[in-house]
Design goal:
Length: 198
Amino acid sequence: MLSLAMTVDPAPAETVDSDGDHALARAAGLGDSKAFEALYRKHQRRVYAVVWRLAGGQAARADDLVQEAFIRAWQALPAFRFESAFSTWLHRLAVNTALMQIRSRAGAEDSETDDSALSVMPSQDTAGFRTRERLDLERAVATLPERARAVLVLHDIEGWKHEEIAIELGMAVGSSKAQLHRARKLLRQRLGEDHDRD
């Protein structure tokens, strides 16, 4: 069974929450824009990484989603209750922002991404996974149909359960499982095709 959990680093190590995040989030919640800017600079890479994957490797779309996520964070911070780490809250908000866009596009054809629209994810640590293979995998994930890609990213990369995915994407648990199966099958085919060309 294909599992991406170990092959794609979901977040850089520097995003670990700290007392600094807590203080910055409190200050930003009270309207301190410099505190919010510090939070943005610290967490922007992790937010970008997840929305880039959900956006199918489309940099312009990912940029828009990151901007939207941070706007929503700024607006919601005054109500943040600090029941979870700030980074966890922000990450979930960013994923939900991307998923809302996917849900709003659900009526549109679930088409595959055009290769010409793909961008390469800015490189992170590739230890244990060769750069070429990582790029092949990222490109293959980006070409998956949108809902199948979302389920794959959330389940195999972000570690969500099918029940959570089903709620967020407005689908049955069985549909989430079917989309994951579809995504993995398509990845196997595409990665097999790519390696056959070598």
